[in-house]
Amino acid sequence: MIGALRSTVGVVSVGAALPERVVSNEEISRRVDTSDAWIVERTGIHERRVAADDEFVADLGARAAEQALDRSGLAPADIDLVVCATTSPDNFFPAAAVTIAERVGCHSAGAYDLAAACSGFSYAVAQAVSQLQSGLAQHALVVGSDTLTKVIDPDDRGTCILFGDGAGAVVLAAGAGPETTVGVELGADGSGAEHLFVRALAPGGKFMEMNGREVFKFGARVMVDSIERVTRACGLAPADVDWIVPHQANRRIIDHAVKKLGVEPDRVLMNLDRYANTSAGSIPIALEEAWADGRVQRGQSVLMIGFGGGLTWGSCLLPWAGNGPDGGPA
Ligand code: COA
Fold it and tell me: Backbone phi, then psi, for 60, in 5-degree steps?
């Protein structure tokens, strides 16, 4: 699916929540046969955050959502829609989004989860944009939250080095700013399902299984292709975008895309060195950091690109239409 439209929908605020516990590469290398040097060279990851045993997707998601909501200046009752992108929810049901809506006081919102693995945040933003654009909703709270470390075999060096836990959230609003071109591209290729999966009720084990090489090739390809497609649909070139916020899977995948696309590296947000791959949380966590230090400013364009299990991918290009961290216009 691909499309672009003139719209007043924009991002008005962002929040993030990370578990306290830091797990370094060195700590992992005490359990499995790997090393800090190998992990840094192949992935760019130095450390990650790991949720406590009693800390789940809805807990992190609610913290991120509350921060985004506070920063939006809106009341909880103003939110019409709460979507939580996750593939590691606490429960099959109720959806994590319902728990999050309850905890942050969004009692007049519809709430549901959306499962598209590491592309989930892009998919959820695309959903929310459609509902805002159609007039069904005025304000949407979109959360990306995952605790994939709970479904990773701590003895599998192919996966345990790559993932961390965390959540991020944005508030999107219709009429948030002047009309701009908003673009979305979503894709799914089920023929690659075997390269990255976690079973639920199907028999055969509870841990993530991954073919790292195949997923690497897929990620490197779709990150470039999807950014090209969505910017073209908006009548832009990749270098015209103010901020590219890629899924934080592997530094080499991002570096490859930067080179191929000819974009300025400092326009591409990266924080995987500290948080690793937080799945649906990774894009809003990176965006939050860049907003908090004043980089992302009102009127600038933000291109979020996610990819992962499914295999799936998704890009959303929309404006930052909110205030800066000091509360005033950015
Ligand atoms: N530490 C040390 N050695 C490791 C290792 C680790 N953690 N993991 C694999 N190796 C070894 C392999 O066994 C292999 O050894 P061999 O040559 O003796 O067979 C060697 O390193 C190279 O393995 P390979 O799988 O080709 O490494 P790679 O350069 O592809 O890096 C990943 C492995 C997992 C880091 C990389 O494939 C990757 O990041 N893939 C994308 C994964 C991803 O992002 N998933 C989520 C997407 S949402």
Answer: -65, -40
Domains in the chain (CATH in brackets) are 7-173 (3.40.47.10), 180-319 (3.40.47.10)
Its pTM stands at 0.97
Catalytic site residue 118?
yes
Q: Ligand 1: which residues within 6 Å by Cβ?
A: 34, 38, 42-43, 118, 157-158, 161-162, 210, 212-213, 215-216, 219, 249-250, 277, 308
Residue 247 among the catalytic residues: yes
Q: CB-based burial of residue 265 (10 Å sphere; 0-12 exposed, 13-18 middle, 19+ buried)?
A: exposed
Q: Give catalytic status of residue 277 as yes or no.
A: yes
The token duo for 327 is 């509360």
Residue among 28, 198, 210, 216 whose CB has most ligand 1 atoms within 8 A, to mutate: 216
Average pLDDT for consecutive 10-residue bins of the chain (330 residues)? 97 98 98 98 98 98 98 97 97 97 97 98 98 97 98 97 98 95 98 96 89 98 98 98 98 98 98 98 98 96 98 98 75
